[in-house]
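> Could you send the GNAT family N-acetyltransferase prediction when you get a chance?

Sure thing. Input:
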Amino acid sequence: MFIIKQYPQDLETPYHLLLDADPSKRLVDKYLACGILFGAFYEKETIGECLLIFHNDISAEIINLAVLEKYQNQSVGKSLISMAENQARLLGCKYMEIGTAEPLVKYYEKAGYKYHKTIKNFFVDNYDFPVTDNGIILKDMVRLIKNL
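Output:
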């Protein structure tokens, strides 16, 4: 059984997971500086992470979410999302946002997120290198939203 908790500051930052979800270390470091990082732990291993940032008093965003492949489809990601949503709710947020690529939209819709908008060429315009998912070059970001 895994546990979910705020990521301890004395542990090494799980860049292997963070960079799996967002390959720009510059952006990951920017978000880490202002966000709350949650970890999923099995025994002594970090098996997943979720990075939460706040846009204002009523809006938060899961800006980064990753789970080690061998632990996927075991509710780790779902539990991380739930922890982030609960934290945002406790801090007074009214809704949660997520920006993702088309291949992951159905995953977030199953968690209750609804389509908000598409940002054309987001991955092309914001990264100096091609961003891929399973060998497919990503172009557009899909923005999803959920009322808390």
